[in-house]
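User: tokens in, sequence out, please.
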């Protein structure tokens, strides 16, 4: 049996697993559990684990099994779960991610977490950091992008 929580933050939906001490092929599990036809269905798999450098650690696996460094909407979901379950020392805590340790602050209304704030760090615009296959020097502003037969202008960061 695998216990999980299904959560969504600003339209992104996630399967969240408190993975204390359990090791497995998380990339393969992400591909299977995120499948919208044969799995639970989600944009990604979020793991919470203990951390040696922060109050908790978060790992993110996209639906294709690739591991991401950080996801703002994922941080929101993990923060709500950890604070409401009392898994972190308070409404403000340190969360280890692939980009480093983030200070996360949860805000309550009527005893429930209704908002989360964190610094996601400085934005990166280099094509290799996004990543994006474009031949343009940073900042990647007004990049033409073909979407459903129409060209739109995008800023990549």
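Assistant: Sequence out:
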């Amino acid at each position: 049996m695998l216990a999980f929580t299904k959560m969504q933050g600003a339209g992104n939906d996630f399967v969240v697993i408190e993975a204390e001490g359990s090791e497995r092929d998380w990339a393969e599990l992400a591909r299977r559990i995120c499948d919208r036809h044969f799995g639970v269905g989600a944009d990604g798999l979020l793991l919470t684990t203990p951390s040696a450098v922060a109050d908790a650690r978060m790992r993110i696996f996209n639906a294709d099994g690739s591991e991401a460094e950080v996801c703002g909407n994922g941080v929101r979901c993990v923060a709500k779960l950890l604070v409401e379950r009392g898994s972190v020392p308070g409404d403000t805590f340190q969360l280890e991610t692939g980009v480093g340790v983030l200070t996360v602050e949860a805000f309550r209304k009527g005893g429930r977490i209704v908002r989360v704030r964190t610094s996601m760090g400085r934005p990166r615009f280099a094509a290799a950091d996004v990543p994006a296959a474009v031949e343009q020097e940073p900042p990647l502003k007004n990049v033409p992008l073909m979407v459903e037969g129409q060209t739109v202008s995008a800023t990549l960061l």
